[in-house]
Amino acid sequence: MIKAGIIGATGYAGAELARLIMQHPDAELTGCASRSYAGQRYADIYKNCNSFTELDCEEENIAAMAKQADVIFTATPQGYLASVINREILADAKIIDLSADFRFKDVSVYEKWYGIEHKCPELFDEAVYGLCEINREEIKKTRLLANPGCYTTCSILSLYPLVKAGLIDHRTIIVDAKSGTSGAGRGAKTANLFCEVNENIKAYGVANHRHTPEIEEQLSYAAGEPVMINFTPHLVPMMRGILVTAYASLADGAGSEAVNAAYEEAYGSETFIRLLKEGEPAETRWVEGSNFVDIGFKIDKRTGRIIVMAALDNLVKGAAGQAVQNMNLMFGLDETAGLMQLPMFP
User: Fold this and answer.
1) 150 catalytic per annotation
2) Catalytic: which of 49, 57, 120, 150?
């Protein structure tokens, strides 16, 4: 059994990690750390875990946890892992980080968009970007994994095959994305109160959202040249889910047959990506509580543009589920282990 520890175990993503690991056939939760709840019984904080664990939350000490665990998940704010990680810790345990600390290859990009001085840029080259369907072989060999976030996972997966195949003009990409409120975290913030969010939808981070360069970097690898996009996220009054609607001009001669072929080649054998019928819109309700991503498209012949629609659960495939999928790859397990839950409805 893989011994797994979680730092940041009482946030939404950390709690989802705990839930998945407690049900994993080849892993066990051996440690959970929480700055806010140290000393408290985990199942008293999250009572859905009653009878599944008797662990108490401990203080955040990654070096000590690494001595007891095979893998540590850090579901922590930006800057935490970079401030504590070192090669000695990596020699003791593999690390899967759910923050953006090691998602980039250029430290200046991270520091510009996140406004934080990076404390450990020497490990940038070792870290692997954990988008399983694209970087599977590299993930299998790494000990430092940068787990992508929800907006980025949905945006990149929906567009990557089209960019790689040269079927769209990547200079025309517009990504309109919507997220449930759990994506904002569990911390108390006025903007996330029920009365602020309910019966409302709003755009935020317009033209400067920090996930923009992450999407651009990964699509640039697909294109073989720099890609620049418009990315606009929105907050909607639901608990879970990401919906991406992406627009781009089709390349000359590109049509439904070529688009379908590109998606089939990229994802036809992927368990967690479900390709929808042409014209069928993706819906968040059909992926909720699961590690699946639904992707569909519609070609607008009148404008010569393609509209790509994709949906995932921001706490599962957009965070904890993808982290567990990465763990499975890093330890040579069946990639789907512990992740084949059918989406919940209603």
Assistant:
1) yes
2) 150
